[in-house]
Design brief:
By secondary structure, this protein is mostly beta strands. It contains 2 helices and 9 strands. The strands form 3 sheets. Strands 5-4-7-8 form a 4-stranded antiparallel sheet. Strands 2-3-6 form a 3-stranded antiparallel sheet, with helices on one face. Strands 1-9 form a two-stranded antiparallel ribbon. Residues 1-24 have low confidence and may be disordered.
Length: 171
C-alpha cells in the first residue's frame, strides 16, 4: 500500500509544469519572521430578521431560520521592515500544509493587508480566511500536523512604488 502512494507521489512530482518549478524571490527589504495558523473557529452567520417597526404587527408563530455556520481560520504573519521606504500595503499568500500527507495539495489563500510599516518596524498582520474544509483541517491542527506558511506577493510603498517578485528558474 505504501509503495502505491510512493508511485503516485513520484508521478505527480515529475509531471509538474515548468512554471511550477520557478521560484519567487523574496522582498529585498521585508523579512518574514514568522507565519502560522492561529486558530480555527466556527462562526454563526445566521442573520436575524430586522427589528419590526412600530406600525407592524409582531409575527407570532413564525419560526426563525435554522442556524448557519462557516469555518474561519486566523492567518498570522510577522514581518520586519529593513529598507528605508515606508510600506502602506502588503499582498501575501497563505498556504496550509498537512504534514505527513503527501497526496493532499496545500491550500492557498490570497490576503491583502493595509498597514503602515516604517523602516525598522516589526509588525504582526492577521487575517481571517474562510473555507469549508477548515472543519476537517481543525483536527490536524489539534494534532500539530497542520502548518501555515506565507509568501509576500506584492508590496505597495507609501511613495507610490510597487515591488513584485521576480520568477527565477532553478539551475
Amino acid at each position: 500500500m505504501k509503495s502505491i502512494y510512493l508511485v503516485i507521489f513520484l508521478a505527480f512530482s515529475t509531471n509538474s509544469s515548468p512554471q511550477d518549478k520557478a521560484q519567487y524571490t523574496t522582498a529585498p527589504d521585508l523579512i518574514i519572521i514568522k507565519s502560522k495558523l492561529g486558530s480555527i473557529v466556527r462562526v454563526d452567520t445566521t442573520r436575524p430578521d430586522p427589528p419590526p417597526s412600530d406600525n407592524q404587527f409582531s409575527r407570532i408563530g413564525v419560526n426563525p431560520p435554522p442556524p448557519s455556520y462557516e469555518w474561519h481560520g486566523k492567518a498570522e504573519l510577522e514581518v520586519q521592515k529593513t529598507g528605508s521606504k515606508p510600506i502602506n500595503r502588503i499582498y501575501w499568500e497563505f498556504f496550509l500544509i498537512v504534514e505527513g500527507n503527501s497526496y493532499q495539495a496545500p491550500r492557498s489563500y490570497q490576503i491583502q493587508s493595509k498597514k503602515a510599516i516604517n523602516p525598522g518596524q516589526t509588525v504582526k498582520l492577521t487575517a481571517w480566511i474562510k473555507d469549508t474544509d477548515l472543519k476537517e483541517l481543525r483536527e490536524h491542527l489539534k494534532k500539530g500536523l497542520l502548518r501555515g506558511r506565507a509568501e509576500i506577493k506584492r508590496i505597495n510603498y507609501a511613495d507610490g512604488g510597487i515591488w513584485l517578485p521576480l520568477k527565477v528558474k532553478p539551475q
